[in-house]
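Today's session is about reading a structure prediction critically. Students often jump straight to the picture, but the first step is always the sequence itself: look for stretches that repeat, for charged clusters, for runs of hydrophobic residues. Only then move on to the predicted structure, which in these notes is written as discrete structure tokens rather than atom positions. Here is the chain we will use throughout the hour.
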Amino acid sequence: MESLLNRYRSLTVLLAVLLAQLVLVAYQVRTGGDVRLLRVWAVSLTAPPGKAIEAARSAVAAWWSEYLWLVHARRENRQLREEVNRLKLENRFLRSELGAAERAQALAQFRARTPSQTIAVRVVAAASGLNARVVFVDRGAEAGVRAGMAVINPAGLAGRVTAVYPSVSQVMLVTAEGFSAGVICGRSRVQGILRGLGRPECAVTHVHSDEDVKPGDWFYTSGEDRIFPRGLPAGEVKSVGGSGVFKEILLKPAAPAGGLEELLVVTAPIHQALPDEQPVAGSAPLLPAPRPPGTSEATAQREPATALQTDADRLLERYRREAAPRGATQQQAAPAPPAANANPVRP
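Below is the predicted structure for this chain, in token form.
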């Protein structure tokens, strides 16, 4: 048998190869594969070494780009940081300009709506000190600003001019200690005096404990002080307390002291109605001044009408009428009334 195989070795190998080929073909046909098994075996044997070679190549390339070229990355990083910082500064500047433009537009609209004559000013400096509530504006006596004029902004009452220089003015804010203004409650029409406390809140004093004032009420300028026009928002009531004769009212100012940049100085104040105050329709004629005692109606009609504004003016006019029959002229000064604390003259 062995000699037979040795004699027909080539034929035996050929038959074995043909048989294996037939078996493989039959298996491929039965499984429905399109790729030859020999190719599959060849790819399966060569794929792992190829993957290992590609991984090694990628690692070497990454090391080369991340470490050997780090100098260029540092330079680019520094340039990018400088660009980001420059863009941040430009963004802040543009935001500041946009805010200033919006405030200027709001100030112009408010100035067009308010009936009082005003001068637009800008805050240029603030007084030094921890509790300082004084600012300086860029308009002074040359622009028509005078001491005692009211200072407002679109939010409401802001302060009062306390000192005037040729080109700048000093303004005391509503929160400054020593500031005061006449105010009135918009809901209950209770009047009081707004006073600065040297801190962010203000106080409303001289309000009786029986008056109706609640947190959330708004106070407006009453115009009784002859400085601030009537109807400007002063602030919102933050708390109401006190157990004495007067209430202790804390007010949150309508125009906070912080962040004031553009203001209006009121040069010619004109009163305006409160937000919920109904104006009187039509015009009401003014009645003539009351006749002094002892004057007939015919005499009062012959005499020209005079604009008597106060009781002192009426008293002065009465003294002049009494002095006229005794030979005194209208140009002479009227005699002063007797002093209330003078010692009586004994006969």
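Discussion point for the tutorial: Confidence is low (pLDDT under 50) at residues 278-287, 302-309, 328-347.
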